[in-house]
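Handout, tutorial session.
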Amino acid sequence: METISPTSPLSSPPTPAASPWVQPAEAPAGPWVRGYFTGSGKTLFGLFLANALLTLLTLGLYSPWAKVRWYKMLAHNSRVLDTPFDFHGRGIELLKGRLLITVLAIGLMAMGQTSHLWEIQIQLIYQFSVMAAFFLVLPWVILAAYRFRLSRLSWRQIHFACEGEFSAFVRRMYLDMLLVILSLGLYFPMVSIRMHQYLWSRIRLGNLRFTTDAGGMDYYRLYTWNALLTLLTLGVFRPWMVMNLTRYRFSRLRLEGAPFQFTGKGGAYLWLVLGNFAIVILTLQLGRPWAMARTYRFYADHLMVHASVPLDKLQQHSVTLKRGVAEELADFLDIGM
């Protein structure tokens, strides 16, 4: 990252285009700090190829170490104030979770293959039980995987952490699910932002805490109108919707009172998506690492934090290293975070 001086054209992040649906957060004057991603498509491709070969040769056993190497590469190539992040996870941590998930998957597949021999009532009970178990475990998986990743991430040898409590997070998610059902889906836009609000407001870097006031009717109006425009334009407006929502979320994020800003615009994001699509298609998927590097660089280049963050007070706080079982379960359930 670089510090942007007050005389620089980027001393204050560009104000998002005025919207009749939401009032953008006011950006304070003063220097801002911007990050950058140094990884290239060539670097990502080399690591992807090596991981794929080792995973194939070991019949899949190497995949946890492949994931750790990937996370480490992303962390080392993401920088703030010329200082890279670091990821301290170990493959053996994820292997334990992977073995547990493998046993679970084999059990579910075996039961599914023999379900046609059961009475219809037992089949219905089995299907209902699987669905119920999924919804029961979902909040735990999301929070546990989030806590694991952050507990292994550091900057300047200071670890991140997430202090979310399972009981509070589970209650919030179940309440949100119930409200979505009772409102016939009208409450759905609030589910994602309330989850982000809970998780982001419980992150800390050492002894420095993140906070966010995202949510409320301003977000609901923003999401609803952007979704309506996306629907009316048959999806053409979606890149602008993604950027509008991303700008909103980061504009409400603070680190010890220092605000963040995200300056990505819909037009630039559209060209990014179209370019990535062309790269992947024309190279028969071989160009996917270059597309991923372009995406990482886009987000890093447009994310800023105000230079008023009290880094002189940054100290390591007590860290409890979380287990990696939920990380593998999140992958198994295809839960992106």
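The second record follows below. Compare its token runs with those of the first.
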Amino acid sequence: MSIHENPSHLVPDLRSCAKGRISLVGAGPGAVDLMTLRAIRCLGVADVVFYDRLVDPEALTFVRPGVRKVFVGKEVGDHSWPQHRINAAIVAAALQGQHVVRLKSGDPSIFGRASEEIAAARAQGIKIDIIPGVTAASAAAASLCQPLTERGVTDRVVLATATCRPGDLPSDLNDMARPGTTLVFYMAMQQLAGLTEQLLTAGVDPDQPVTIAANVARTEGRVLHTRLVAMARDCAQAAMTNPAVILLHLAKTTGMGRLPAPPVAGATPETGHPVSAF
């Protein structure tokens, strides 16, 4: 029976909640109304919730009164809650017979370090599942009304991070930056100069249009349209910071594809496009 035929299916059934398990739940990019029904139901049966810094506080209103909520947020480069500590905490709670919800911004499977939490749970024989969420790339494309793919122009999407583990080699952008690709970079705002250099080395046109979308699906959301060669400078001048994604549509043929919104009166190619709200 569908939820449309029986709306009571939206109300969590506490009797059916299996104890001693972990659910990795995607809260989406910001706006709480982008959360899935399954995510909301899972929050309603949780015994304890460990949540990230970017999770909308309103999402926690779906948690039952009296349930413990633990903030385990991290800034890029700031690890007061290192991953091994989070792993230990959620596993310990599950071993006590609790239904643990690990609430993550975006989608847990995309740069959410889900694999490490899955491994920690399975090492202790704990059941674990993933409830997907809307990732920032999809939310940014929707906010901009700019699809990630376009028939005949871009036929693949690459989601990449510009922030790797210390000592890791950077991703090979020569393979990623092929014509016909939409590139979306996460966690790149502190790596803009290096990312620009790598993309130029990979053969991307210096005048390639670039869109930076910050605080996607939030009231404070901002967007900057610029060119690759000016990306680092324009972001600094506009004070664009994390959380943000960087989008490049590398068309199959030069001149094809949708360009960013036209510059506002007074803007020049030298200064880039002004920042605007979504």
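Points raised in discussion: The chain has seven helices and eleven strands.
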